[in-house]
Structures are given as structure tokens and as C-alpha cells.
Specification:
Strand content: 25-35%
Mean pLDDT: 92
Low-confidence stretches: none
Number of domains: 2
Radius of gyration: 20 Å
Number of helices: 7
Largest sheet: 6 strands, mixed
Number of strands: 6
Length: 208
């Protein structure tokens, strides 16, 4: 990542042996960790460093940089680390000149609840200034970019992810109906399937 306020850049490398012990990695997680060259807290976004307001939903964001030895995203390790990080997070997984970003919406109350993970491979993230006033809006921007869905005004990250899930669900339904229509030989039934597909397509337009 680049383009952020220099105050947010910390580049604090974590010792992998100590991390393994602290997180109490199991056998599979330790095996996956062997494919990791380094893990660091690359950026830290809080009110002091960014000048952005905080609220009960988002008060701090960590950007972990994970350099790997093979072109594999170590999801077991990332999930374990995420589950033990009491802030919102985004992971930047780097292999040579390939960057993969990993994010999940988290609820941070008495316990940490992590939702579905989304990944996106792209060139290195170059941040451009956007009109925001809170850390929650910055986090929403990160989520929106990784899941490839523009956020709506006053939409929370949870609502954005839920909309993404609904879109995926409808797209699966449409694909099944299209497949069914291709195999159908009766004209009337093809028309009925077309009507269903058209209805779902209208729902997709409203959600996107």
C-alpha cells in the first residue's frame, strides 16, 4: 500500500516464532506459516494519526503486510491472526510483484465475530484522497474496494457485505435458470423461465 499519511506508516515486523506461540497455532496452521517470509503491521489508522473521527463501530484499523514464499494466500494463519486482533484489519499478501488483499467485516464487542472473507488480487494499492471524516468511512472504503461493490450513502460495512451476498445468491439462481432454459425443449416453459430470469435481473439492478 502507498499514498497514505506518513504518520500512519509503522512497519512493525512480528517475530513468526513468537506469533506462532502467542496464537497457539495448530499443526496445519504451523505448516502454512512455513510458507510465510514475514508479517508486519504496516499501517495503523487511528484518530491521532489520521485526524479522522472515531465511533463505537471503528476506532482503529491495522493493515498487515504478509510476504509469502509461494503464490498462496495463507488463509488459516490470517484467520487466526484476525480472530486475535481486537481492531478492524486488512491483509496485504505480497508474492513478488503480486498483491492480494484480504478483508472481512468484524464485530468487536465483548467477543470478536468475523464474517466471510473476501480477496482481491491487483497491483499495489495506491490510495487516493477521498472525502471522508471518520475511520468507519475509511474502513468501508477498504471493504468496498476489495469486494468490488461501490458503497451507498449511509451504508455500513455490514450492510454492504450483506448486499454483496444477496447479489452472489441471485447470480447463482440466474445461472441455474439459464442452464435449465438451455435444456428445456418446451416453448411455454422456456418463456416461463425467461420471466423468472427477468425478475431476478431486475433485483440485481436494484442491488448493484
Amino acid at each position: 500500500m502507498k499514498g497514505f499519511n506518513t504518520k500512519t506508516y509503522v512497519s512493525r515486523e512480528l517475530r513468526l516464532t513468537e506469533l506462532s506461540r502467542t496464537l497457539k497455532l495448530d499443526k496445519d496452521e504451523k505448516t502454512e506459516l512455513k510458507g510465510v517470509k514475514s508479517i508486519s503491521i504496516e499501517y495503523l489508522f487511528d484518530s491521532e494519526r489520521t485526524g479522522l473521527k472515531i465511533n463505537d463501530n471503528v476506532s482503529m484499523i491495522y493493515v498487515y503486510k504478509v510476504v509469502v514464499l509461494e503464490d498462496i494466500v495463507p488463509m488459516l494463519v490470517l484467520k487466526k491472526l484476525d480472530k486475535n486482533t481486537n481492531t478492524h484489519t486488512i491483509f496485504e499478501v505480497v508474492y513478488d510483484d503480486k498483491y492480494t488483499y484480504v478483508i472481512a467485516n468484524k464485530r468487536l464487542n465483548d467477543s470478536i465475530v468475523v464474517g466471510e472473507y473476501y480477496t482481491k488480487s491487483m497491483s499495489e494499492w495506491e490510495y487516493n484522497e477521498i472525502s471522508i471524516s471518520t475511520l468507519e468511512q475509511l474502513h468501508l472504503h477498504f471493504v468496498s474496494q476489495v469486494i468490488d461493490l461501490p458503497n451507498r450513502q449511509d451504508e455500513s460495512a455490514r450492510e454492504l457485505v450483506e448486499r454483496k451476498k444477496n447479489i452472489k445468491s441471485i447470480e447463482v439462481r440466474i445461472a441455474k435458470l439459464e442452464s435449465k432454459k438451455t435444456k428445456e425443449i418446451q416453448f411455454n416453459k422456456k418463456i416461463a423461465l425467461n420471466d423468472q430470469i427477468r425478475e431476478f435481473m431486475c433485483e440485481l439492478v436494484k442491488l448493484k
